[in-house]
Amino acid sequence: SRGFSFGAPTIEEVELAEMVKGAMPNVELLRLVNSGTEATMSAIRLARAFTGRRKVVKFTGCYHGHADFLLVKAGSGAATFGIPDSAGVPKEFAEHTISLPYNDPDALCAAFDAAGQEIAAVIVEPIAGNMGVVAPRPSFVDALQTVPRRHGALLIADEVMTGFRVAWGGAQELLELKPDLTCLGKVIGGGLPIGAYGGRADIMGMVAPLGPVYQAGTMSGNPLSVAAGLATLTVLCDIDPYPGLEEKAARLCEGIARAAEKARVPVQVNRVGSMFTVFFSEVRVEDLAGAERCDRQAYARFFHEMRRRGVSLPPSQFEAAFLSTAHQDAEIDLAICAASEAFEAMGRG
Hints:
Layout: H1 11-23, E1 29-33, H2 36-51, E2 55-59, H3 77-80, H4 91-94, E3 97-100, H5 105-115, E4 119-124, H6 138-150, E5 154-158, H7 170-175, E6 181-184, E7 195-199, H8 201-204, H9 223-239, H10 242-262, E8 268-272, E9 275-279, H11 288-292, H12 296-308, E10 321-322, H13 329-347
Parallel strand pairs: 2-3, 2-4, 4-5, 5-6
Antiparallel strand pairs: 1-7, 6-7, 8-9, 9-10
Helix pairs in contact: 1-9, 5-6, 10-13, 12-13
């Protein structure tokens, strides 16, 4: 198990799967893949096979990788460059994808009322990060949990960004969400290429060789990524960084908000755990439409002002910023000071 690829499972692959399962009780069986895109693509294929249905619901501004049928009103880079749908994707590939507003339980109910017997699954970023950070409303979380199940559809939690970041058990732990399937990305590989999808045993039992749903990859669960993932998750389990990250991120974001208020620059600082976004808006941002109404030119100015002062933020408002265990009090103080100077410079014009 010390090579780069065997094309067969290793002991460490099983150990990593058991560690993920221990953190996320909703994951009863797990399959390792090579990326978050492979994870979401495979989970949707599985959901369609399990339900015998074709349609999939996603939410505008949520990004689930670059599979053709998911590049419909996507977030992340697609939102940054104003590309709602990608060139090169035949419309037939996307005709079974229903895109709804994030944080809108009524829209979800209406979609199922109209086509509930055709919908295989709802896929969602439980905490949106690809339109900037947007937390779900409690009523939205409740609808995600109840509406698909009531109609015999599956709920897929895309935790590529939130898994092991906002809590040891991911967003589903914070929100007390019980998805049928969960998708994870490079966090379980310590940043190296890897992904995973898993969930209920009766659903995962349809994946070959146990069932008829084919999915494979030569480098899936490769020993290098698995070793890095085991090391990373072991450290996270041992040190439990989440309370400290919560405290530091709260101090940073409160400091940024106070600096903006002092300079009379209207901002909304959205944060969940160690994820945050500074939106230049006078009103709270709760979906992609709200994010698109923000002053993105002001954000670009803020990005460059902060960079000149030694603080690196995402160059796009539609990307989340993250605090890590490497950031200590000195770095947080520096960032707050830089934000204060940046807002003052912006206030002067």
